[in-house]
Write a structure and sequence with these properties.
The chain is an alpha+beta fold. The protein contains 27 helices and 33 strands. Strands 10, 11, 12, 13, 14, 15 and 18 form a 7-stranded mixed beta sheet that branches. It has a 4-stranded parallel beta sheet with strand order 2-1-26-27, with helices on one face. Helix 19 packs across helix 22 and helix 22 packs antiparallel against helix 23. The longest helix is centred in the C-terminal third of the chain and has 22 residues. It is globular. The chain binds one RNA strand through helix 7, strand 11, strand 15, helix 11 and helix 19.
RNA sequence: GGGGAAGUGGCGGAAUGGCAGACGCAGCCGCCUCAAAAGCGGCCGAGGCAACUCAUGUGGGUUCGACUCCCACCUUCCCCACCA
């Protein structure tokens, strides 16, 4: 051997191209050059410190999509930013006695470096960080637009309070009765808080899910369930001995004659009044029960399933039967759903049944199954059926009875048909520092006054000592003490900050126009770029971020700030998690795969290929060191396949040999086909938005195998040269560094990422010969090699000639012949 | 309790009505090497000497033909969960 062949040195190749791409701003959008727009983005990260492998999977996929779409001729906007406000920064600041801004900035610097280290193609000229005044002033501006429309309001209500994080939480942020962030049990507290009236949009948020075919079905279903629409009726029971009534909501008006008690939540406003009219003993019991409910956490009250309750001593009058029913206070009625009171129908509701049995309340059967009416006596029957013992409504079907009873209640002004939602208004106040100050001033005479637009942003005061208790901003006199913008008298500034989900409900619009200092974004930019064509991120945001964003976008649409469809994300894709050797990665387990180490050990091209190859992107992937070494091997094979052509191809000039050559042999034909099979897969997986690049990369393996064996027999074939010249284009979206390096070494002056992707060529994809499977009665009995263009007659004749086929036919007559061109013949005897 | 997704070799997966197991990982054998690594070539679901038979969670069904479609069941994972 005269000299050592140069081997694939991923470290220097990756370093070289990352700095060159950054210098050339290679991923900038092109602007108006007639190409169709494509807005694709990944969910922006929280700057927690280090990029983890889950981010890497998200961005490997997102970057492959962006690069594919660019090479397919689109003007691609692919931005990145930072979800930079939030509790971890504040907690880190408390623990270390530092400024959350400093901690956040440091993390952003590190993670931006790591995202670049992955060789991703983001257009950094659109970068945003939500903690910067030039971003959050527009949070405040948008809040004021919501406020002036009555969609932002302050109200005292029982809310979720996390004692660990010392702040309130939105419903969506309570999981299994615990804080989504720290896992601490959530308490119930009555506090005055800011809400956004998302319930105003409940109907549209629900109905429009049907107009999002580009969203995963499970995500739409989960949102549907979360919104939880139910149709029913609301009607009132008069309280005996009191000039007041209690409204109840029900979806089962057909069971109304089965009511044997009325059940109230402990917080129901009528409870205080009842205490006045009942005996002192009952009043004392009511007080004690209400107190015991108050002291219990939401989880204890609702998830422990034990149904507690007491009789109040008061009675209500059934609006239809005019009978007396006892009024109970129970643990299982929710204060903030429906009316906070329910009609108790033990015979036809599981929960009422359980409660009635425990407290010896009677059950009255009023709906029976069509067949055996006796069968349900003494048991709970929750299905629809035929009514009995229900005055004029007896003998009706449940469905008809619901209509008829509702009509009667409406005619007599006793009630009305109503729709209820599980969705509650979105609580956005947070008693924390590191978030957007709510731009409101509380004036003793004027009430809640909006901070004038010219005074925005209300800046977060710097240098606040954070102790992790109390409301940090409330303890800063220079911040809180102000004058009323309306009357000029002394007033107090609102000290709550916003939930960070406010920031991420519209950040995709700020990306479009990140430096606009007169508006959050311009209508022109929104018209040019919205909607987001592809959004890729984890499934954990299904009912949080993705629902809030839809709400905001509909509001913007109604105000005319965006045009076109009133949904922000036309296509949504959830990538799966990444495990390591079947286990979750965590610092405590010590099994975290670091981006920096991986870049050093295997290179990021191999990492990107592995993450896309190991599973379909929506599935959970398992990171193994052996697995990634398979992708490293592939890249070495790619390199070696191209290596002998560096000098020759460069000398021949980049543009030569781009046309599909004539295949001189079956092997060459197969090689050319393998090239176009990769292209076909890549294009189809991209445009279908299935993104199963695992199959594309498997075909790339096959191509490289074919190139390796072709090189073993002939090194001068035009087909092999064509494959070598085309390979960098094929792999550019998935392994961008090696693609660029090979492209340059093969004599191309311009970046491979500006090339058009290889258009799958039908001539290259077609085959001359196919293996026809011959079945007899559905079982494979022969395989015959035939010309691809074979006629049906001829194929059947050849099939019948096969000795094994004849043996299995055993002389019987063929009753039926199935012929699938290019695939199989089935002879049914 | 409700809803959703999924069950295929030792492992990740491919095939979505037409040759089950592409491609890779692991393993085994060989070549190369003084040796090892790398690389290259081969084998790799089970049974059988073979012809073949069996095999995609289980049981049915539709079909010339089912991993794929339908029904029932089992298992796993995820989400919601006293929402009247």
């Amino acid at each position: 051997m005269l000299f050592m062949a140069e081997s694939y040195d991923f470290a220097s190749i990756e370093r070289k191209w990352q700095s060159r791409w950054q210098r050339d701003a290679a991923a900038r959008v092109r602007g108006k050059d007639g190409r169709p727009k494509y807005y694709t983005m990944e969910m922006l990260p929280y700057p927690s410190g280090d990029l983890h492998i889950g981010h890497a999977k998200n961005y490997s996929l997102g970057d492959a999509v962006a690069r594919m779409m660019r090479m397919l001729g689109y003007d691609v906007l692919h931005p990145m930013g930072w979800d930079a406000f939030g509790l971890p920064a504040e907690n880190a600041a408390i623990a270390r006695g530092i400024d959350p801004a400093a901690w956040t900035t440091e993390n952003i610097l590190n993670m931006r470096r790591q995202i670049r280290l992955m060789g991703t193609s983001y257009d950094w000229s659109h970068e945003i960080a939500t903690c910067e005044p030039e971003f959050y002033r527009w949070n405040q501006w948008l809040f004021l637009r919501l406020f002036e429309r009555g969609l932002a309001y302050k109200r005292e209500a029982p809310v979720n309070w996390c004692p660990q994080d010392q702040t309130v939480l939105a419903n969506e942020q309570v999981q299994d009765g615990r804080c989504w962030r720290c896992g601490h049990l959530v308490e119930r507290r009555n506090l005055s808080q800011w809400f956004l009236r998302i319930t105003e949009y409940a109907d549209r948020l629900l109905a429009d899910l049907d107009r999002l075919p580009g969203w995963p079905e499970r995500t739409r279903t989960m949102q549907r369930n979360w919104i939880g629409r139910s149709e029913g009726a609301t009607f009132a029971f008069a309280v005996d001995g009191l000039d007041a009534s209690v409204e109840v909501f029900t979806t089962r008006l057909d069971t109304v004659y089965g009511v044997t008690f009325l059940a109230l939540a402990a917080e129901h406003p009528i409870v205080a009044e009842l205490r006045r009219i009942v005996s002192p003993e009952h009043a004392a019991e009511i007080e004690a029960f209400a107190q015991s409910m108050k002291s219990k956490s939401e989880l204890e009250r609702t998830s422990l399933m034990e149904k507690h309750g007491i009789f109040t001593g008061a009675y209500a009058i059934h609006p239809l039967s005019r009978t007396q029913v006892p009024i109970w206070i129970t643990s299982y009625v929710l204060a903030d759903y429906g009316t906070g009171a329910v009609m108790g129908v033990p015979a036809h509701d599981e929960r009422d049944f359980e409660f009635a049995r425990k407290h010896a309340l009677p059950a009255v059967t009023v709906v029976v199954p069509p067949g055996d009416a006796q069968a349900v006596e003494g048991r709970v029957f929750v299905e629809d059926g035929r009514l009995i013992a229900s005055d004029d409504f007896s003998e009706m079907s449940s469905e008809r009875a619901r209509e008829a009873i509702a009509a009667t209640l409406e005619a007599r002004s006793l009630g009305r048909r109503t729709v209820n939602y599980k969705l509650r208004d979105w609580l956005i106040s947070r008693q924390r520092y590191w978030g957007t100050p709510i731009p409101i001033v509380h004036c003793p005479s004027c009430g809640e006054v909006a901070v004038p637009e010219e005074d925005l942003p209300v800046l977060l005061p710097p240098g606040v000592t954070l102790r992790g208790e109390g409301s940090p901003l409330a303890s800063v006199p220079e911040f809180v003490e102000t004058t009323c913008p309306s009357c000029g008298e002394p007033a107090r500034r609102e000290s709550d900050t916003m939930d960070t989900f406010f920031d991420t409900s519209w950040y995709y619009l700020r990306y479009l126009d990140p430096h606009n200092d007169t508006r959050p974004w311009s209508l022109q930019r929104a018209q040019q770029w919205m909607n987001v064509d592809q959004y890729i991120g984890g499934a954990e945001h299904t009912v949080l971020h993705l629902l809030y964003s839809r709400f905001f976008y509909k509001f913007f649409h109604d105000r005319g700030w965006v045009t076109g469809p009133d949904e922000p994300f036309s296509h949504l894709f959830h990538q799966g998690m990444v495990l390591r050797d079947g286990e979750k990665m965590s610092k405590s387990r010590g099994n975290v795969v670091g981006i920096d180490e991986t870049a050093e050990k295997t290179g990021v091209d191999a990492m990107r290929l592995f993450l896309l190859y190991v599973t379909p992107p929506e599935d959970t992937s398992d990171w193994t060191d052996e697995g990634i070494s398979g992708r490293v091997r592939l890249l070495h094979r790619v390199w070696r396949a191209c290596l002998p052509f560096f000098e020759r191809a460069a000398a021949a000039g980049g543009e030569n040999g781009r046309a599909l050559p004539q295949a001189e042999s079956p092997q060459e034909k197969a090689l050319l086909r393998a090239v176009h099979v990769v292209a076909k897969s890549a294009v189809e997986e991209t445009l279908s938005r299935r993104f199963h690049y695992n199959t594309t990369i498997a075909k790339l393996d096959e191509l490289v195998n074919a190139m390796t064996s072709a090189a073993g027999t002939t090194s001068e074939s035009p087909a092999l040269l064509y494959a070598v010249r085309t390979l960098p284009v094929l792999i550019a979206p998935f392994a961008p560094h090696i693609a660029e390096e090979l492209w340059e070494r093969l004599g191309n002056p311009q970046s491979v990422h500006f090339e058009a992707y290889l258009e799958p060529d039908e001539r290259a994809l077609e085959v001359d010969e196919v293996t026809l499977v011959v079945q007899v009665n559905g079982k494979v009995r022969a395989r015959i090699l035939v010309p691809a263009s074979i006629e049906q007659e001829r194929a059947l004749a050849l099939a019948l000639e096969d000795p094994n086929v004849r043996a299995h036919l055993g002389g019987k007559t063929v009753r039926k012949q199935i012929y699938v061109p290019g695939k199989l013949v089935n002879l049914v005897a």
